[in-house]
Each structure stands twice: as C-alpha cells, then as structure tokens.
Amino acid sequence: MLYNSTLFEIHTISEKDAWSICDFVSANEDRLKRYFPLTLAQNLTPDLAQLFVAKKVKEFNAKKEFLFTLKPNNSKKIIGLIYLKALNWNTKQGEFAYAIDYNFEGKGMISKAIKFLSQYAFQEFKLETLQIIVHHTNIASIKVAENCKFTWIKTLEKEHTPPGENPLDMELYEFYKP
C-alpha cells in the first residue's frame, strides 16, 4: 500500500487484482467506454483481466506505464484506477488518467489520490511535469485538475477519438514540480 486515508487506499497494480478489475470495468462499463475503451475491452472477462494485469505489472516494473488501484480501506475491491502514462523520461513528463466507480464519485477521492501521486511521481520517478487531458464536458475531471493545482495550458485539437465518434478536442492541464 502506498497511501491510506480514512476512506481509501492506493496500491500499485498487483497480479491479485485481476478479478477486482474485471468486476470494476463490468460495473462501470458505461463510464469507461468513451475514454477508457482499451481498459474496458481488455478486462471484460476474468481471463482477459489476468492477461491485462500481468502486462500492467510488467510495464510498471519496466517503468513504461504505472497503474495504481484505489480500494476501500481493508478491502480487495477496486473502486478506481489511476494511470500515470505517456511517460517521457527525456523531458521528465507523464500524464494522469483516472476513473472511479459510480458509487464513489463526488467524494474527493480522485483529487486526494492525484495530490498524493503527484508528489510521489516527483519524488520517486523524478518527473517534473504532470499532465491531465480532459474533455471540456467532464466537469468532475476538470475539478480534479483544478483542486490539484494543475493549470489549464491549451486546447488540443482532435486529441482523442472515442469508439464510433469523430475526434474530440481535449483540454490540457499541467502541474510542475515545485
């Protein structure tokens, strides 16, 4: 466990998480299909989730991408996922992407987790710039960026293409190592 609050814990991805991730994506399929289509597709069955988790553990250990899980205190149930991805070790930059179970949204958990993981990324991984890329309609995610002192930088044209949709413009927020 990396972090423990009164409401939740943050863990690094573990081989033991496959069933819980499968349950998480199944319960939150509608929330994930637009912005996390690959995570959704790769975890629709327990067997797929096992392959996904094995891959993510390897990527974590190789410092290619970091996946963190949010769990209620003293529980194995996953209620959120936070990626630190798009890592550029030359520019010391990474991007956060996150999703939380619909039963736990609006409680400030993602904001607390991003605040902690930002400092963790600066200290442990020596990153200097962290990004959050969000669609302008995702007000909850914009609030996370703002609550965590990320600054709006610019609109990225045609940055993300959801399945079956036209490319969307996305908003770029950044936070720099103090």
Automatic annotation (TrEMBL):
**Alphabetical list of InterPro entries matching this protein:** Acyl_CoA_acyltransferase, GNAT_dom, N-acetyltransferase
N-acetyltransferase domain location: 11-151
Q: Keyword annotations for this protein? A: Acyltransferase, Transferase
Q: Read off the PANTHER family from this record.
A: [RIBOSOMAL PROTEIN US5]-ALANINE N-ACETYLTRANSFERASE, GNAT FAMILY, PUTATIVE (AFU_ORTHOLOGUE AFUA_3G00765)-RELATED-RELATED
The record's family statement is:
Belongs to the acetyltransferase family. RimJ subfamily.
Pfam families from the UniProt entry: Acetyltransf_3
Write the protein's name. GNAT family N-acetyltransferase
Superkingdom of origin organism: Bacteria
Coiled coil ranges (UniProt) are none
According to the UniProt entry, its GO molecular function terms are: acyltransferase activity, transferring groups other than amino-acyl groups
